[in-house]
Amino acid sequence: MRRSPLLLGGLLLAAMACASGGGGGATAAAPADSTGAAAATTARPSGNRNLLTAQELNSVGSQNLRDVVNALRPRWLQNTSAGSLSGVSGGVTVYMSGQLLGGLDALSTVQKGSVDRMVYYSITEAQARYGMRVRTPVIEIRLKSGG
User: What pLDDT shows up at residue 67?
Assistant: First the structure.
């Protein structure tokens, strides 16, 4: 009987090591608390696949945020979990300054130059941030201060 808890602990430790080593979703909550300053120091994509900095946004010529996201983080525009039942265009919801902006089409209404950073939240992360009413992943737009 002593082997079962030991085996379970070993499996849990191995699973955690695999999750953190792959650069997967383990860092998904970090952008909410960070300033993004460290990621903005280079033009190369940050190690965090759930964050787009102003510098990264400006590295793409298009002013249309949807085109920019499609070029830099195409997986943000796809939602395989909620499908078409979400009621939001594209199955992804866009928030700006904490307010619901709409579906993916809302990305084309925001001036790229006014954006400080964009953060992608999975459904679970989005529900933790915006409440259980959220049924899709969320792209959050954070504007530059004063803009």
Answer: 93
The enclosing domain of 107 has a CATH number of 2.170.130
Average pLDDT over residues 72-79: 89
- The model's confidence at residue 27, banded by pLDDT at 50, 70 and 90, is very low
Q: Is the dihedral of CA 29, 132, 74, 26 positive or negative?
A: positive
Listed residue (108, 121, 119) closest to 142, CA to CA: 119
Could you tell me the pLDDT band of residue 48, with boundaries at 50, 70 and 90?
Answer: confident
Q: How far is CA 56 from CA 20, 32, 61, 81, in A?
A: 24, 18, 11, 27
Q: Choose among 34, 66, 68: nearest CA to 54.
A: 68
Q: Is 85 helix (H, G, I), strand (E, B) or coil?
A: helix
Tally of structural domains, the chain: 1
Does the pTM exceed 0.90?
no
Range of the domain at 104: 3-143
DSSP label at residue 112: G
**Side chain identity at 7, as an amino acid letter?**
L
DSSP three-state, residue 72: helix
